[in-house]
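Recap for those who missed Tuesday's class. We walked through two folding examples back to back. For each one, the amino acid string is listed first and its predicted structure tokens come directly after. Nothing is annotated here on purpose, so try labeling regions yourself before you check the end of the notes.
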Amino acid sequence: MNRREAIKTITGAGALSALSIGATQGETPVASRENPASKAIEQNEMKFWLETSLKRVYPTSPAGSSQLAPLLTARAAKLSFQACFRNEKINSAIVKCEVVGADDLKPVIRRVGFVPMRNINTYVPTEEVEGIGFIPGLCPDPLFPESTAHVGPHANGVFWISLFVPAEAKIGRREITVRMTLENEFSYVDFVRPKPWSVEMTVPLEVRPLVLKPRENFPVTNWISADSIWEHYKTEPCSERFWQLADGYIANLVTHGHDVIYTPMFNNRHEILVRPAQLLRVKRTAPDQYEFDFTDVRRWVRIALRHGANHIEFPHFFTPAPTSGRYPQRIFERDAKSIGAMLWAPEISATGDTYKSFLKQFIPQFKQFMEEEKILEKSFFHCADEPDGDVQMADYRKARALLKELAPWMQVMDAMSEPRFATERLSDMPIPSIVTAGIRQSELPGVGLFLLRPAP
């Protein structure tokens, strides 16, 4: 069975379970019936229409219907839909979007941005491909916290509207109104400043009696890259600007149902980076002596907990080589302001005296830090990633044995592609690839599976 057939088997067998899981994450499936047959609202060379959250609207997608079938929702749930306009003018158009009559649903309006997508993915049957005719091209992806869109001639503007249905919401049918207002136009050298005008579209909601409960005993993770944040925004590692940005990124993850926050205490990348993601401050005081400062790790963890994370996930203690073998984690000397050189050559033995001496000093202080922050019982740990083949399996056994010696209290979870990794119980919680899980599930009782889900 190849990867595609395995995925089809898993998703087909678990479709109802997946819907249930999605609901407990807080996002209600929205569409239950076909949209009524109607057209977009057309006025002054503009078209306005609505879409569910299940359809991507490209810059040149044809206009749809100004009516939606009732959006079904449970209570204590979140649902989303889209409000769209097409500018058929020779001028650019500035349009504002508002939600009227839904203050109790705490509407959030965000402008849909477009990013280049150069190719359609390979190895996907044509009947499963979405976007043919629009891709390669611009593809809807980011959501900007803006309720106004400035769109050029013969192009679309799209707004993503999220509603939060309270647990005490009244059961039954209700309607909300989306108002789209043309605020201005730009012509050849200046704004035209026409008199603003608006159109309104009605969105029917059907609130069902079901009240969703918070998800329990189903941790979901999505690794976040601290170095990508400071490199993209061109700021200094762990500067105040970085912490402002990190706060927003972590809040966004938790809002979208990820209750496990990966904490880049060490750099976990294979390549050697100039400014790696290492929150831990380390100072070498003698050839085999180190001082540790958890200030930045602590700040990251407290942000995660403040935004509602239930678990903290820490990096691997060992890193795989590009071909075979297993190396110690790459640790850099760093202080509050700068990141220095690695503390040892990357190719030294993972279980040799140098790294073992480091771990002997680090692990007790690491445990003390977690106890101080009251996160020891809610933390996830890793030994090493994806051992594959006899050589890496042997390296993993040595690395895991060293961790058991130095931290017998620590249980680890690790990704696997080699089934023996699980059947021989080399990890406390082996995490299989989706293909391995689909093919060997009956042979691997008790094996964990990480699930990824789209953000609402």
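Example two. Treat it independently of the first, because the proteins are unrelated.
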Amino acid sequence: MHRTFSRACAALAAVLPLLASCQQDPPAGSGPYAKEVAKAVPLIEKSMGLKFKRPPKVEVRSKADVRAFLEKKFDEDAPALEMAGAERAYKLLGMLPDSLDLRKFTLSLLAEQVIGYYDPATKVLYVVANGGTSKDAPSSEILNITITHELVHALQDQYISLDSIARTRGDNDRQAAAQAVIEGQAVFEQLAVMLGNGNIGAALPGGWDRVRQMIREGQSTMPVFSTAPMLVQETLLFPYLSGAEFIKQYKERRNGGVPYASMPVSTQQVLHPEQLLDSVGNKSATSVPIRVRLPKPNGATVIYENDLGEFETRLFLYQHLGDVGIAAQGAAGWAGDRFAAVNTSKGAGVTWLTVWKSAVQAAAFRDLMERTIERRYGVVQASGGQGESRHFAGKKRQIELTALTLQGHPVVLFTDVPDGASTKVIDVAKVTFDRP
């Protein structure tokens, strides 16, 4: 799922009653929101263990100006053809409703809570004007949260290139992992600052689980977000929730510090931080995903190609099977994947090759995929046959599901095409694997 969504921090509004600060304000400098910036900067530097190399720049814009700016950035980060391809692919995978206009809906999400935004291209933190003084402006509390959060991004950008991360193409999983670090760190450090750099889990009633719950509750109060498909909601929340949890684990295991030198390269490493953080000095323990390269399709043209990663594989299973535990368990053995939405002579189809850590995990995933096909297409249970390849027909579609060993790797190949089209969209013998 393309991850260009609002960077506003209204999702954290629910934690405000618990985060009142009694610290005295330091002297303010000059410029917009100088008092808020002067207060936040030393606290952020202390919590992160990094110093601003240059003072953060803040500019005030109207809500309409900030919205227009975000829409312009959205157009740059999510070109129309790429967004249309992603939309088609996720609809073919059954993860978005056919009636959804993804671009239009995402822009409505951008407009829902426009408070502030740090732009890596201009190195400026843009904030809505007249905070707390008009019905369209945020309260002073929300404004302070936003400024602190976006100042973390400004500091990050002085040590790593946020702009290059945003413009990553063709590796959705790796981009999602990087964004989880970026947004997760901003959430974690924002909370740490507001709690006086104490133990967040210990300082809040209910601990860290309560933090996650409050972030979810904050987002669910937004009208547009609350109507979003599950895929959109979860991919929007992932960088904030799982990313903050990753940063928490990193700081505990690394005695503070920042993860920029050893960024996670997959959502699997974000979901299971120990796979990255426990691997120092033991390269064999590092969970580096296998990168899959699909060959040119047979008798078809590619509409869009990318990967899902463990996180979106989990969402795929949950979307179709409705069980969180089964979805998490079924995706846990993920080792790599690649999908392609294609145009055949009979219409659009999709082929998706997943790689697994063991043959047992591949077989378990194949069984879950078979259940998914039966539910989604209303086919009779076990009608796909037995053996390595199983074939299904339903709702004017032909589906093939194959589990095999390919170049020593257990894989599962799922292909869904219109009636009359060949399910042999790709030649599996021409699939190649490598590691980054």
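Answers for example two:
The first strand starts at residue 57 and ends at 61.
The CA atoms of residues 120 and 135 lie 29 Å apart.
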